[in-house]
Every structure is written in C-alpha cells, then in structure tokens.
Specification:
With about 425 residues, this protein is an alpha+beta fold. Helices cover about 25% and strands about 20% of the residues. The protein has helices at about 30, 50-65, 115-120, 135-140, 150-155, 180-185, 220-235, 275-290, 325-330, 375-380, 405-420, and strands at about 20, 45-50, 70, 85-90, 95-100, 105, 125, 160-165, 170-175, 195-205, 205, 210-220, 240-250, 265-270, 295, 300, 315-320, 340-345, 365-370. Strand 5 and strand 6 form a beta hairpin. Helix 7 crosses helix 8, helix 7 crosses helix 9 and helix 9 (about 325-330) runs antiparallel to helix 10. The structure holds flavin-adenine dinucleotide.
C-alpha cells in the first residue's frame, strides 16, 4: 500500500545502482531538460538508470512513495512535467546491436538514431530514422516515427519486431506478435503510456547511398512550386521523399552567401535511388521554380540525410493543395520564420494487417509552422483532416486526435489491462 507522499519525505530508491541527481546538484538541470521551452519540470529527483533493474527500482520507489513517474531519453518529446516525481533518464542505456544477417537492430531505451545509423551503415543497412540523429529511437518509434524512408518502408513502428517492457506493476514482459500481442499492438504508435520499454528490436533496410540534400529558390517561386507540387505528389514514386520549406535563412556566416539572410523556398529531397532518376523525377518542380539560387543536392550516404526539422508549433494534415491553400501559405510566409510543407503517403498508407494504432496514414501532406499563425490555421481548416501525428504534437491534452475512434477504444482497453491505476500518466498518455 503506497503512503501519501509529502515533500518533506526523502525518496529512497532501494536497489537502484545508477546516479541520482537532486535539485541543486550537478546533473539535475541537465537531466530534467526538455527541448520544449514551455516545459520546466521540477522532479523530486532525476534517476539516471544504467539497466532495466534500475528502471524497475525507480518505478517501484515511485509506486511506494505515491509520486509521479516519467521516463526521458533525450528530452526531444517531453511535453509535460514530472513535477515532484521520479524522472528516470535512460540515456546511459544506449546499447545498439546489429544483426546484419537478419537485418535487425536491438537497442537500449537510451539509444539515439545517430548511433543506430552508425552501427548499421557498415553493413549497407539503415533504420527508419527521422530528421535528426539526436532524437531517441524508443520515444520516436512508440509515437509512430516518420522518416525520410517512410514513403518507401512505412512508419518506424511498422518495423518493430519485439519490445521488452516493464509494466506498471513491476513485471517485465516481452511484447511481440506471440507474446502480449495487444500490448505489442498498442506500443506501435500508442506512445509511452503502457510501460517502460527497456529494449526494442526492429528491422533495418538495405540503403547505402541516397540522393539527398537541399536546393534553394527565391521566395517568389513559392506559388508556382506549390501549385506544381499538387499534381507532382500524385505521381511521385515511393522512393522519393520531399518537402518545400518557405524559410528565412539566417544572416550568418555559416550560411552560404547565395542564400544568406534571404527569404527562400528550400526543396528538401531524399531519393533512395540514383541521382539521374531523382533529377528526372524532380524536373517538373524545378521547371516551375526556375533557376536555383543554390543546389546542394548530391549522392551521399544515408547518414548524411539528417536535414533537421521544423519545430511544430502549428501542424495541419492536408490531403490536397488547392489554389486557396497555396495563397494562404504564400501569405503566411510573410509572418513565419519557417513553414514546411511535407509530402507523405506511399507505404505509410499500406500497413500490414497487424499494424499498430498509427493513424492518418493516407495523409498526403503536413504543414508545420514554427510559430502559431491563427489566420493560416483558419484558412487551412476547410482542407485539413483535423488529425495529427503523435510525434508532431506538443499539446498533451490533444493526444486522442492522433487516433481513430476505434483505435482509441482499443488503446484504452489495453491501458485498462496493463495500467489500470493510470500509473503512467505524464506526457502523451491515453486514459484508461
Ligand atoms: C529536432 C526534432 C526532430 C524531430 N524529427 C522527427 C521526425 O523526423 N519524425 C518523427 O516521427 N518525429 C520527430 N520528432 C519527434 C520525436 O520523434 C518525438 O519528440 C519523440 O517523442 C522523441 O523521443 P525521445 O526519446 O528523443 O524524447 P524524450 O523526450 O526522451 O521522450 C519522449 C517521450 O517518449 C516516451 N518514451 C521515451 N522513452 C521511453 C521508454 N523507454 N519507454 C516508454 N516510453 C518512452 C515517453 O512518453 C516520453 O515522454 C522530432 C523532434 C525534434 C525535437
């Protein structure tokens, strides 16, 4: 029976072998830091775990003291504060094992994508990672995981084979197609509210070189490029992934002189194929744009495709680019640092029969803005499907918007079965 916790009580972690950081101590601020600037968490302590046993010890201590509990690998997706509770940092648990024969990786919960990419590359393999190598593999994958190869190979969660999971009652179980299959289903897109994943196994794909990079055009090209994008995306094969970014480039010496301080359209591309194929495919967009200010596209390694993302302060999922949408985006570009229009679809919309609860799979486009623009939101509303991808959602009161009603019902049933008291309640959590 847990005792009511008072701030005067000292939280003890029997059996915990990792490092504990208390408020005011070195490591506390670093450990609690979120990349979401609106989250300023004040946990009672930060517990840096060195193994699954440590995570379990911290979980049981949180239960015993009746305090909140949360897990953080990197802070990239921490959108709610674990105030007065135990915040477990899994960063030291960053093992990465690659089985090149079976094309599988098994990682610890602290592993980041850069580490998996580096471990897989010598075998000509790649994971379904996203825009940044510093994002954590587990948080990304539990939220679905949309990367540059998603149109070709689907969401990262579609490639998960098994997970070791620490449940709310302290039991450790294996979730796979044959073991706790409902939990396995929920983990593949349902987020971190069902247990602490202490090991994750997923498929890798043969991708050695890709054609990728940026090309920059004057902002005046935005309207014709967006208009051309409308039909271009319908014919684009799954091998090619693109985004059009309406962007103010920093006036900074690091930025190439041709685009420094300019308002531009940045074409981002990753093509799992040859440069000739990619240039042929991109020709209609390029024709609509006119001459590039700067072309940095080239054949390169998959590791070099980490091209950065846009912080999603505002997100809409669209199925089409009408003239009104083009007009609204071009007008809004005046008021934002970055507006990213990204093309999805392909294999994302063709899940296997046992795929997890990731939804909005057939969404063609996302519009991500780095600031809140209510006027743009209003103008896009008639064309937006009202949904969101969990990984791009900061507002934890809107978690349900990432799921269909049927999947939400099934997720709640899994939550009731595996966490009936709602022990995991910080962050994107589906209620029981
Ligand atoms: C710069 C940047 C680029 C991004 N690019 C992409 C992208 O290209 N595609 C994409 O899909 N997403 C992208 N994201 C979103 C990212 O996938 C999510 O924010 C994800 O939650 C990050 O996971 P993390 O472990 O790094 O973050 P953390 O903040 O450490 O964890 C986030 C949440 O994940 C859950 N979690 C983490 N570890 C565990 C665990 N072991 N067990 C159970 N739950 C756990 C918890 O709910 C936790 O609150 C990006 C985010 C940023 C900031």
């Amino acid at each position: 029976m847990s005792q009511p916790y008072s701030m005067q009580d000292e939280i003890r972690l029997p059996g915990f072998t990792g490092t504990v950081h208390l408020p005011g101590e070195a490591g506390y601020d670093e450990g609690r830091r979120s990349m979401n600037p609106s989250v300023d968490a004040r946990p009672a302590l930060v517990a840096e775990a060195y193994g699954a046993g440590d995570v379990r010890a911290a979980l049981l201590a949180a239960r015993g003291h009746g305090v909140p509990f949360a897990v953080q690998a990197t802070g990239h997706g921490t959108h709610a504060a674990c105030d007065d509770g135990i915040l477990v940092r899994t960063s030291p648990m960053a093992s990465v094992l690659v089985d090149p024969a079976r094309r599988i990786a098994r990682v610890g919960p602290g592993a980041r994508w850069g580490e998996v990419i580096a471990a897989a590359a010598p075998f000509g393999l790649a994971p379904l990672s996203g825009s940044s190598p510093t994002v954590g593999v587990t948080g990304y994958t539990l939220g679905g995981g949309l990367g540059w190869l998603a149109r070709k190979h689907g969401f990262a969660s579609d490639s998960v084979l098994r997970a070791e999971v620490l449940l709310a009652d302290g039991r450790h179980v294996t979730a796979s197609a044959d073991s706790h299959p409902e939990l396995f289903w929920a983990l593949r897109g349902g987020g971190g509210g069902f247990g602490v994943v202490t090991s994750l196994e997923f498929r890798l794909y043969p991708v050695a070189e890709v054609f990728s990079g940026f090309a920059y055009f004057p902002i005046e090209a935005a309207a014709p490029m967006l208009a051309a994008y409308r039909s271009w995306i319908d014919d684009a094969p799954d091998e090619i992934s693109t985004a059009l970014v309406l962007k103010r480039m920093p006036d900074d010496e690091q930025v190439p002189a041709a685009v420094r301080g300019r308002h531009v359209v940045q074409l981002k591309v990753v093509h799992a194929g040859t440069a000739d194929q990619a240039r042929r495919l991109l020709a209609p967009l390029w024709r609509a744009a006119g001459p590039a200010l700067l072309d940095e596209t080239r054949t390169t390694t998959y590791a070099a495709t980490a091209m950065g993302g846009t912080p999603a302060r505002q997100l809409d999922l669209l199925d089409t680019v009408t003239d009104s949408v083009v007009g609204a985006l071009v007008r809004a570009a005046e008021h934002a640092q970055t507006i990213e229009i990204r093309h999805w679809g392909g294999a994302m919309g063709r899940p296997g029969p046992d795929a997890g609860p990731v939804t909005h799979r057939s969404t063609k486009l996302s519009v991500i803005v780095d600031t809140v623009l209510p006027e743009l939101a209003g103008e896009l509303r008639p064309y937006a499907n009202g949904g969101t991808f969990l990984n791009f959602l900061a507002d934890t009161s809107r978690t349900a918007a990432a799921y269909t009603a049927a999947d939400l019902g099934r997720l709640r049933a899994v939550k009731r079965a595996y966490d009936p008291d709602g022990f995991f309640r910080v962050g994107h959590v589906v209620p029981a």
